[in-house]
Amino acid sequence: MTPQESSMIEDLIRKVEGTPLSEKDPEAEQLLLQGLGRDPDAIYKLAQTVLIQNLALNQARAQIQQLQEAAQAQPQQPARATSFLGGLLGHRDPAPVAPPPPQAQYQPVPYQQRPIHFGNHDAWTRWLVDDQRFVDGRPDVLTYESEPLTEDLTVTGDPVAHLYAATTGSDADWVVKLIDVYPESMSDKSLRGFELMVAAEVFRARYRASFERPAPLVPGEVTAYAIGLRDRNHTFKAGHRIMVQVQSTLFPVIDLNPQRYVPSIYQAVESDFRSATQSLYRSPQFASYLSLPVNTHPPR
Q1: pTM exceeds 0.70
Q2: What is the bridge-based pairing of β-strands 153-157 and 276-280?
């Protein structure tokens, strides 16, 4: 049995165990017992049938999505000036990708035995204001950047990242960062091109429907997320750029996601960790964007 088959069987078992049964039809139950009871391999065969059908359905969904993307004649224009991850921001990925939508493929941060110790104490005292250029060029970070602002823009409230995303795994983390990019013309040389993280949030996909009842993702299925970046009151000055970064790990600030659903990530072992392909959609049907609460009357 391959690791993928093992994961699929475990996911099927969890779905069966987590599905409540409100009532049973006695006649149907008796018919199933009579029919399946004659074959000692009935459960094995039934599981094979279900998994094969699920696999075929996921492949069909992916093919349908590709056809829908190819059929779109015109790209969607941003609904308003504060919609990001769309036409407003220039895409700074290493290379543009034709439909299906762009995606970043990468290996998760290598598993490390617990406990994990970090010797650079100073890094922990300043990580919230670190220059975010340290992730430039990383293949697992998607970066979108505006043109230089022609006037000040003040954000007051809760920015919300609306993502349409998919993964080949059964769990994932989505990290969204809102960044103020300083111009190269700053008089202070240390601030030239500096990328200041204004807001950031991590969302663990298993809690997309409920924090009380986590559930695995369906591999390859496009899922909608609304990720609040918490209240902010920040002014992007004229000449600065607005940047958005999307990634799937913030280790060691946030513990590693195995990218395979397990009951408790804190108890995950080395064999639980999987590589995965994360896809962020920017199509007319699945339009990811960042909503900014622009303050049109900021104090002077």
Answers
A1: no
A2: unpaired
pLDDT, residue 10, reads 75
Residues lower than pLDDT 70 in the chain: 1-8, 18, 21-22, 51-123
Please answer whether residues 55 and 261 qualify as being in contact, where contact means their C-beta atoms are separated by less than 8 angstroms. Answer: no
* Predicted local confidence at residue 95, as pLDDT: 44
| Gap between the Cα atoms of 62 and 57, Å rounded | 9
135 vs 96, 101, 130, 263, 287, CA distance in Å?
19, 22, 11, 31, 25
The bridge status of strand 289-291 relative to strand 160-167 is antiparallel
Contact at 8 Å (CB) between 12 and 55?
Answer: no
Q: Torsion angle, CA of 258/264/266/271, rounded to 10 degrees?
A: -40
170 and 216 Cβ atoms separated by less than 8 Å: yes
Q: How far apart are CA 260 and CA 251, in angstroms?
A: 17
Q: What is d(CA 226, CA 87) in angstroms, rounded to the nearest whole number? A: 20
The domain locations on the chain are 1-19+30-71, 75-291
pLDDT value of residue 89: 44
Concatenating the DSSP letter of every residue in 139-183 gives TTEEEEEPPPPSS-EEEEE--EEEEEEEESSS--EEEEEEEEEPP
Contact 171, 217 (CB under 8 A): yes
Over the stretch 194-226, which tens digit does the pLDDT of each residue have?
A: 999 999 999 999 999 999 999 999 999 999 999
Q: Quote the pLDDT of residue 78.
A: 39
Secondary structure, 3-state, 31-73: HHHHHHHCCCCHHHHHHHHHHHHHHHHHHHHHHHHHHHHHHCC
Homologous superfamily (CATH) of 75-291 is: Galactose-binding domain-like (2.60.120.260)
Q: What separation in angstroms does the CA of 162 have from each of 79, 175, 227, 247? A: 13, 12, 6, 14
Q: Which residue, 251, 230, 104, is CA-closest to 178? A: 230
Q: Token pair of 64, please?
A: 């349908």
